[in-house]
Structure formats: C-alpha cells, structure tokens
Specification:
Blueprint (H helix, E strand, L loop, with lengths): L14 E2 L9 E6 L3 H19 L6 E6 L8 H4 L11 H13 L4 E3 L13 E4 L4 H7 L10 E7 L3 E7 L16 H4 L9 H4 L6 H7 L4 H19 L1 E2 L1 E7 L4 E6 L2 H9 L16
Parallel strand pairs: 2-3, 2-5, 3-4, 5-6
Antiparallel strand pairs: 1-8, 6-7, 7-9, 9-10
C-alpha cells in the first residue's frame, strides 16, 4: 500500500524518522496525566487512527503513568468528574479511552523513579516539576527510547520539544535532535522548583493562576507535530513556544546553528516563554 510517507522528498536539514518506527507498533509512554498529560492522552487515539488509515501497519500502543489521584480541584481544569475523586488519574484515563475506542492501552498508577525501565519508543513527559523531569532523564526508559517529547508551561505560555536522547539508538545519527534540557538546562534543575512551588489552592485560585486552555493548546500543537512526523516521515521543526497572552506561536526549527546558539545563551534565550516548568 502506497502511503504519504513514501511519496515525500526531504530536504538536507529535515529530521528523518527512524525507519523502524514506520514498520512496528510504536510504543508510547506518557508520564504525567494532569492538565497537559490528559490532553495528550485524549488526542493520541486520533493520531493512532490517522496512522493506521494512512498505511502504518500497527499504529500506537500507549501506556499512561501517574501515581497521582484525582482531587476536587482537578475536576475544574482537568477532564475528571467528582465521582472519580480519589481514583488514580492514569487508570481512569486509560479505562475511558479503551471503552470508547476499543483499545487495550494501559494505565499505571505509579510515580516514575530511577528504577523504571519500561521499553518504549516515544516517551512523552508532562510532569509538573523540574525534579520529576530530572528523574525521567535518569531512567533506563529514557536511555533506551528513540524520542523524548517534553512539554511544560507557566500560567499563560509554554513549550514542547521533541528530542533524541544521546543513547545507543541515537548517538550515531547525523542530525540528532537535542532534548529540551540540552537546550535549556534549567528545565532539569530541581533547585529552581523551591521558588516556584505554590501552596495547595482552591479550584478558583487554580484558574486564576493558570489560563484556561494553555494545556490543551500545547498538547494539540505537539500532537500535530507528531502527526506530521508519522505521516511524512520527516520534520522541519521539532518543537514550539506558545504564548496565550500575546497570541504568538513560534516554532523551533531543525537547525544545528540555532541549537548551538541556544545552548550558549540558554540563560538569556530569544524565547523567554520556554522558562515554564510545568506540564500539569
């Protein structure tokens, strides 16, 4: 069967998807099922269906991981109901998706630590602290995956970055995509969490501290990027920066010269909105 993937021609600066991911069932792991993670989870079945319709032989197999339980506050900004308070977010989302779509995706009600070693191709991080993001980078899962898609946000802005950890699968690639912490080291500095941490708040305070739809906007921008990667087999950009206050969205091009400049100037980036730490 001829697919759109086979008919595209890449430029020299485009990122090329590893061919194996166009031939096998793609293992996807989502870490964090809060505001952004739940939006990613809700969108992944559409990506799966699109991939299969366009000729991918298997599509996606997804695992959702989060040890957090649903609270009353979560029922305002996140897709949970009061009848689900006290249940684990990961299992609720996986069950809901499986019942609606007829899938067999998994929900794991645990937090990620250094002992985590699940095999995955695409690791999607939607965590709510730099410490949690740092923990992801020290797992065997991170050091064995093809891609790490990291999403983070502040009150009205955020970023998503698709990178390739410098592991056995990726370190020999000519145009390896740098990960978010390679470009912005502050994203994995746990010491910065202390000044950002806020006390528990009510549902109204949660809305006042974060604009509605910032999580969904980031999630669907990232999913649209993944859809292009699997449909065409290539990308000219591997991330983006969203600011709901200004209405501005800026892409992160596949550009080694820009990467080098961003590494050198990470403390004074031309994209100030990427300082966001959160994913939930």
């Amino acid at each position: 069967m001829t697919t759109a993937i086979e008919t595209t021609i890449a430029t020299k600066t485009d990122h090329q998807i590893p061919g194996v991911l166009l031939q096998k069932k793609v293992q996807v792991t989502v870490v964090g099922c809060g505001g952004t993670g739940s939006a990613i989870a809700a969108g992944l079945p559409y990506l799966h269906q699109a991939m299969v319709a366009l000729g991918h032989p298997h599509g996606l197999d997804v695992t959702l991981i989060d040890g957090d339980r649903i609270s009353r506050t979560n029922c305002v900004r996140q897709p949970f109901s009061e009848s689900e308070i006290g249940l684990h977010k990961a299992t609720v989302l996986a069950t809901r998706i499986n019942l609606f779509w007829g899938l067999g995706w998994k929900g794991v009600p645990h937090f990620v630590d250094e002992s985590w070693g699940q095999e995955t191709d695409l690791l999607i991080g939607c965590v709510d602290s730099r410490a949690a993001r740092n923990a992801i980078t020290r797992t065997q899962t991170y050091w064995n995956c093809h891609y790490w898609l990291d999403l983070g946000n502040n009150a009205d802005s955020g970023q998503f970055v698709l990178g390739q950890p410098e592991n056995q699968k990726n370190k020999k690639r000519d145009l390896r995509l740098p990960t978010a912490p390679e470009l912005f080291p502050e994203l994995v500095n746990p010491k910065l969490d202390k000044k950002d941490r806020l006390p528990p708040c009510s549902a109204l305070e949660a809305l006042e501290r974060q604009e509605p739809f910032v999580n969904q906007t980031l999630a669907y921008q990232a999913l649209a990027m993944l859809a292009r990667l699997f449909r065409y087999g290539r990308l000219s950009y591997h991330g983006g920066f969203v600011n709901l206050r200004t209405g501005r969205t800026t892409s992160l091009p596949v550009d080694p010269v820009l990467w080098q400049r961003m590494r050198a100037q990470s403390s004074d980036s031309e994209y100030p909105e990427i300082k966001g730490k959160k994913g939930g």
